[in-house]
Design goal:
Elements: H1 5-16, H2 30-35, H3 42-55, E1 78-83, E2 89-94, H4 96-102, H5 120-132, E3 135-144, E4 150-161, E5 167-176, E6 188-198, H6 203-212
Antiparallel strand pairs: 1-2, 1-5, 3-4, 3-6, 4-5
Amino acid sequence: MATNPGKWLKMAQNVGSGGIGPGGGRPETGQVAANRMKISDPVLKDLLDYWESLRAGREVPYRSEIDPRRFEDALEHMFILEHLGEGNIRIRLAGMFLCEMMGMELRGMSLRALMRLEDRAPLDTALAQVLSGPSIAYLELEAHGPSGRRHKASMLLLPLRSDFGDISRILGCLRIDGVPVADGTPLRFSISAAQIRPVRIEGAARSAAAAELPGFAEPKAAFHHDGPQLRSIEGGSRRRGSRRRNHLRLVKDGE
């Protein structure tokens, strides 16, 4: 299937801005939108369901909340992206299958390296919308090998918060039909279709999220998350001048 990057880019912008819903109606929000995304791959479906359960009504879950044991079947197909600023998005972690597919270690590389030249700009648009929306993106792809054969593929992109509270991580999974590595490496991908849905929280869930993350409307919230925090405990201080016995001490010759 030939890719039309211009058409895809326009579609992605419309959906990302909330202009498209089922049957051309008003845009969907929250988990309803995610559940109605037409995803055929069962591994991607399970991953999306896990992400939805993890966020539990919040806008986006934290990277530190991800438990790899919950999706062991998908691990070798998964990757985590990190936004380093000014549109610079790099692969932080990548599964073994993805590295074998490209014939190289992917850590530190741009995800654009996996795409054909004409499909890199549309991918940039999708990544930007996932982070800024935040949004969920599902891309239908074609994998092109050196032999000229094509394989159907699909990619799911899910936003995550860093430990600092900013949405600067993306949990991704890339699935390919067949055994494309047998056709040679590296593979390059083209985009044939895309679904992008904004994530929304409404009503009580929005109020709860605001209480959970004070100052969440700021551009970057620092250290606001559910993990362990440092706090002051009264009554545990020692008088000035008292010295605590060391667990380790220096022993000189002759002692």
